[in-house]
Write a structure and sequence with these properties.
heterodimer, A: alpha+beta, Heat Shock Protein 90, six-stranded mixed sheet, B: alpha+beta, Glutaredoxin, four-stranded mixed sheet, 6 helices, 43% helix, globular
């Protein structure tokens, strides 16, 4: 994975295959405290303790199309490589929480990448699911909630190509504003 | 493109969006829209499927090609990622491998618009991922 946004795109696929209806993505950047946290929560099927124990083993996967499962191990490796940490908690029929902490200024910390693009790929491909995305940069935050967007759209499909482009632009603009605020 | 900073701005675009959708529905051929599925598991994402998806969503909208772009899981062709499955109305689904933005451009212009066959189709006897389960 070239950047952290691609990890988010990858890990959320797990939530979707677990049948989650609500997915919460939280990114918290704090340059002063030298940390960057990514939190992905879902209300999918969850995992039993014995499965949970094995998910960061690259030779474990629940799928049948291939024999390896690298999504979580790679995410974990990249978090730990930047002096951070990685935890995953899950409860059957309740859902799963993946938490990755990164050292903000660490040289091996991957760039965040195109988060608005990733959010809109997820929203556009899964119009029937609800996504709640919160991004905090040095204390200032921006929230994008598909429930609110759907209300504003008033019947226009959220996966309409033009809508996706507008929403992506909107998230990008707001993130830029958060970035500028820190100066 | 008008700048949109909030959902309130989006609301103002509503009539534009609605007329665009109405226009498309009128011109719709009875067979419906082309469906494109971009494989987006770890293997696909690591090979650049996000770039391909961004390109497809953007270009199909700009070129007024009526298509739905969505994501799918790993089909087991990890070696050939990024892969995309294209279903043109009335035809069997076709999977293209090693897709980059240049290839995606060819697929839009030649395969979707003109029905020409292209190189790079992976399996001959392919069934969609749901059927395999």
């Amino acid at each position: 994975m070239k950047d952290l946004s691609l990890h988010i795109l990858d890990i959320v696929q797990n939530s979707l295959s677990a049948g989650a209806q609500n997915i919460i993505i939280t990114i918290d950047e704090d340059a002063v405290a030298d940390r960057l946290n990514i939190l992905i929560q879902d209300d999918g099927a969850g995992m039993a303790p014995d499965v949970l124990e094995r998910v960061t083993d690259p030779y474990y996967t629940s799928r049948t199309t291939r024999k390896v499962g690298l999504g979580l191990p790679l995410f974990r490796q990249n978090a730990e490589m930047s002096g951070g940490s990685f935890t995953i908690d899950s409860q059957p029929s309740k859902g799963t929480v993946v938490k990755a902490n990164f050292g903000y200024h660490h040289i091996d910390r991957q760039p965040l990448g195109d988060v608005p693009g990733v959010i809109m790929i997820l929203v556009g491909s899964n119009p029937e699911k609800e996504f709640y995305y919160k991004h905090r940069i040095n204390g200032k935050e921006y929230v994008f909630d598909t429930r609110e967007a759907r209300e504003a759209l008033d019947g226009i499909p959220i996966n309409e190509p033009s809508v996706i482009r507008y929403l992506k632009e909107m998230i990008r603009e707001n993130l830029q504003e958060l970035q500028e605020n820190k100066k | 493109m008008t700048k949109i900073k909030s959902l309130a701005d989006l609301k103002k675009m509503k009539s534009d969006l609605q007329s665009k959708i109405a226009l498309r529905e009128k011109s719709d051929t009875p067979e419906g829209r082309t469906l494109i599925k971009v494989a987006m598991a770890t293997c696909g994402i690591a090979s650049g499927s996000k770039q391909v998806m961004d390109f497809l969503v953007e270009e199909l909208d700009k070129r007024n090609v009526d298509a739905i772009v969505t994501q799918t899981g790993c089909m087991g062709y990890c070696y050939a990622e990024p892969t995309i499955e294209v279903t043109v109305p009335g035809k069997d689904p076709v999977v293209f491998g090693y897709v980059d933005t240049k290839k995606a451009d060819d697929i839009i212009e030649k395969y979707i618009k003109n029905g020409e066959l292209l190189e790079g189709i992976i399996p001959v006897n392919y069934e969609t991922i749901e059927k395999n389960k």
